Amino acid sequence: MSTSHARTGPVGLPEWGRCAVMGVVNVTPDSFSDGGRWFDTGAAVKRGLELIAAGADLVDVGGESTRPGAARVDEAEELRRVVPVVRELVGEGAVVSVDTMRAAVAEAAIEAGAVLVNDVSGGLADPAMVPAVATADVPFVVMHWRGFSADMNSRAVYGDVVGDVLTELRRRVDAVVEGGIEADRLVIDPGLGFAKNAEHDLALVARLGRLRRELGLPMLVAASRKRFLGRVLAGPDGTPPPARERDHATAAITALAAHEGAWAVRVHEVRASADAVRVVGAVAEAGRSAGAEGAV
Ligand code: PMM
Fold first, then answer.
1. Which end of the chain is less crowded, N or C, counting CB atoms within 10 A of the terminal residue's CB?
2. C-beta of 31 in contact with ligand 1 (< 6 A)
3. Is 196 tagged catalytic?
4. Is pLDDT above 90 for 200?
5. Is 266 noted as a catalytic residue in this protein?
C-alpha cells in the first residue's frame, strides 16, 4: 500500500489547497437528516446549485438512504433518482460525486459526468464495484463499513475502536488496490455512525490525525447531523435536537477535521463549514508566519 502522496487529494480531482467541502444531495424520500426534501430531480438539482453557491467545492449525489435501519432501494429506482441529477449538475459545471453501493449506478453516473465514486461499503456490497471503478479510473472513497444499514447497529462492537477501524480500513484499501484501483485514486473515511455508537464516533473524531497519518491517504469526514452530535447536544432529559438543528455542531467537527488535515468534509449545510475551513486555513497561515518570524 502506498503511504504518501505529494498531492493532498486523490489523483483525478481538482486540488483545492485546503479541506474541500462536499455538499450532500440526497435524492431520497427517507434520508435520516434531510427527510426527502430534495426528492424530485428539479428540486435536487436546485439544492445542488444552492450548495455550490454557498461554497461547496463538489456535490455528492445519492439515491439510497443509509440511515440506521433503512431498507435497500432497488437498482432501477436508484438509477432513476441519481442519473438525471448528476447529468444536470455536471451540465451546470459542478464537480459531482456519486454516493452508491452499486456498480451499475456508479457506471451510469460516471457516464453522466460524475468524477468520484463514494461507496459507503468500500466495494463490499457489490463485487462488481471495484472492477468498475478500476476500469473507469476515477477516485474512490473507501469507507469503514461492517454491513448494511438494516442491522448495522448490532455490529457496533469493538475492542479498541480506533485500532480496529484502522486495521479494517487498511485491509479494505489493500483489497481494492489488489482489485485494480490505483492507490493514488483512493480516499479513506472512518464511516462515522456506521456500525458505531456515539462513543465510537467521538473516539474516532479524537483520532482523525492518527487515521490519516497511519493510512497515508486523503481522508473524508462525514459527521454532518449524525446521531453522535445529537447525543452531545441532548437536553437534560436526554432528547437530542432534530437533525436539522445540528449544523453548528457539524461545523465544529469540520474545524477539527480541517485542522487534522482532512481532504474533505461531507455536509448538508455548506456555509458554516466553508467558513470554518477558511478560519482554520487563516490560523494555520498565521502560525506559519509566526514560526518564520521566530526563526529570524
Ligand atoms: N454517511 C452517509 C451517507 N454517505 N458517505 C461517506 N463517504 N461517509 C459517510 O459517513 C456517509 C456517506 C449517511 O448520511 P446522510 O443520510 O445524511 O447522507
1. C
2. yes
3. no
4. yes
5. yes
